[in-house]
Specification:
Helix content is 21%, strand content 42%. It has 5 helices and 15 strands. It has helices spanning 10-20, 132-141, 187-203, 220-228, 250-256, and strands at 2-6, 29-41, 45-57, 63-66, 75-77, 82-88, 91-98, 103-118, 151-159, 162-169, 175-180, 210-215, 232-235, 239-241, 247-249. The strands form 3 sheets. Strands 1, 2, 3, 4, 5, 6, 7 and 8 form an 8-stranded antiparallel β-sheet that branches. Strands 9-10-11-12-13 form a 5-stranded mixed β-sheet, with helices on both faces. Strands 14-15 form a two-stranded antiparallel ribbon.
Length: 257
Amino acid sequence: MTYDILKPNASDALKFIEKYHKSKADKTLLLLIGDCMIDYRGRARSFLDWGERVIMIKQDGAVLVHQPIMREPVNWQPTGSKTDFSVKDEQLILRSRHKSPPEKMKITFRSLQLVTATSLRDKAKLIIAGMETDVVNEIINNPDVIEGGLRISKREKHVKSGMIDLFGYDQNHVPVVIEVKRSIANISAVHQLRMYVNDVKKDVDEANVRGILCAPRVPDMVKKLLSDYGLEWQEVERRVVLPDDYQKTLKEFALQQ
């Protein structure tokens, strides 16, 4: 059930919160929209003067303060915070406290547009598809997508300049360094691959070490730079199955970036 009250005064807002939220705060999401002032003290100190904002108190105790713009909250309290309400000088006061680390936030409302109490159920797990690991796993499971006879011997190989995504050997036993990108390959990826190849050359007896840049799409400009450095490329595309069975290719994901 969802309950709300429009443009309440401080006393009516407090009565509403005590009735629909306070007794079951761990099962109720509380939303307040109003003109407020915020004083925070904790790991830092901040003060936010009067302004109209959205305050959300989640069922795990987290408190989020949003201004009319920007994605991130301007103030917040972490999960496990305890929140109390009171009225002073005809203003609703919200106090949120967190023990470790010690933090406290005081929000004073001089007017309220809306107070809503509701209970949400959500046990779904976020599944992210289209990441670089999708391409890496595809190559490990089927190295032939790069070339026949390729053997992957190590994932995330540490070298001086960083971490190689995949390291292996071709059918002629020549070491192969593979750098994987989930979207369109760029110039910085070329320089990154070049450094990895140079690092491997210092660690192996063979003078010849191949470097292959893998991505859903490699622009002509990037291909030319790779050729100039004696490096290679391979456009690798795989189908990603999302939980709703709607399939997208990595190229489609790249176009959304």
